């Protein structure tokens, strides 16, 4: 039987311990949830880049472009490989029809493609051929070739964080520069074109 002389504080201890345990259990569940939400938010922002392009260091700088053999957006074309571009300096631009930031830089790519000394190659990232074809028909096709990276494997091998991203690749198939985010007119004139010219003269 209960001790009539026990204090109210001593009788409350088990309940307080129970409440503390419940509180700690809730916190343990909330921490993983908070981490998940933060990660999901970061990924969502990363997949669609906004603002000016940034020159972000990449571990692939100075290394060969990852091997690939991918179908092209244009039907009836042979799969494209890096070997087909040996001896050329080329610009590899990752984009997608679902990418709103890609529309920002696209008019600049259209203008860039008018230069005979620039080889633009598109990397259609985690998209579908009909959607990519419709997008290029609507906004214009600046690319000499565009490959379909349906499962995102090539993008992963390139270390894509989001789209758009742009790589400059030299005559030997070595990655020389990476731009993350939509290119700007200033970047194209002061950074991209001078680099292309330098690599072509090498």
Summarize the SSE layout with pairings:
Blueprint: H1 8-47, E1 90-95, H2 100-113, E2 119-125, H3 129-139, E3 145-149, H4 153-157, E4 165-169, E5 175-180, H5 185-201
Parallel strand pairs: 1-2, 2-3
Antiparallel strand pairs: 1-4, 4-5
Folded structure, characterized:
With 202 residues, the protein is α/β, with parallel strands linked by helices. It has helices at 8-47, 100-113, 129-139, 153-157, 185-201, and strands at 90-95, 119-125, 145-149, 165-169, 175-180. The protein has a five-stranded mixed β-sheet with strand order 3-2-1-4-5. Strand 4 (165-169) and strand 5 form a beta hairpin. The longest helix has 40 residues, at 8-47. The protein starts with 7 loop residues before the first helix and ends with a helix. Mean pLDDT is 83; it is low at 4-27 and 34-47.
In short:
By secondary structure, the chain is α/β, with parallel strands linked by helices. The protein is built from five helices and five strands, in the order αβαβαβαββα.
Mean pLDDT: 83
- Low-confidence segments, given as residue ranges, are 4-27, 34-47
Given the structure, what is the number of helices? 5
How many angstroms separate the termini?
A: 95 Å
How would the global form be characterised? globular
Q: Biggest β-sheet: count, sense, barrel?
A: 5 strands, mixed
**Percent in strands:** 5-15%
Helix fraction by DSSP (H/I, runs of at least 4): 40-55%
With strands numbered from the N-terminus, the spatial order across the biggest sheet is: 3-2-1-4-5
> How large is the radius of gyration?
26 Å
DSSP strand tally: 5
What order do the SSEs take from the amino end to the carboxyl end, as H and E? Answer: HEHEHEHEEH
Structural class: alpha/beta
């Amino acid at each position: 039987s209960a001790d009539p002389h026990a204090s109210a504080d001593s009788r409350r201890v088990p309940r307080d311990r129970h409440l503390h345990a419940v509180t700690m259990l809730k916190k343990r569940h909330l921490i993983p949830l908070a981490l998940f939400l933060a990660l999901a938010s970061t990924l969502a922002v990363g997949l669609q880049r906004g603002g000016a392009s940034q020159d972000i260091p990449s571990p692939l700088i100075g290394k060969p472009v990852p091997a690939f053999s991918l179908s092209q957006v244009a039907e009836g074309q042979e799969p494209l490989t890096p070997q087909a571009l040996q001896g050329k300096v080329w610009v590899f631009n990752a984009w997608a029809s679902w990418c709103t930031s890609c529309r920002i830089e696209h008019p600049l790519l259209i203008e860039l493609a008018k230069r005979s000394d620039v080889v633009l190659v598109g990397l259609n990232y985690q998209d579908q051929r009909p959607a990519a074809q419709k997008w290029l028909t609507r906004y214009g096709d600046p690319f000499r070739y565009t490959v379909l990276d349906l499962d995102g494997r090539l993008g992963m091998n390139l270390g894509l964080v989001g789209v758009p991203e742009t790589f400059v690749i030299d005559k030997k198939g070595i990655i020389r520069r990476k731009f993350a985010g939509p290119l700007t007119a200033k970047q194209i004139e002061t950074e991209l074109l001078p680099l292309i010219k330098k690599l072509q003269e090498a």
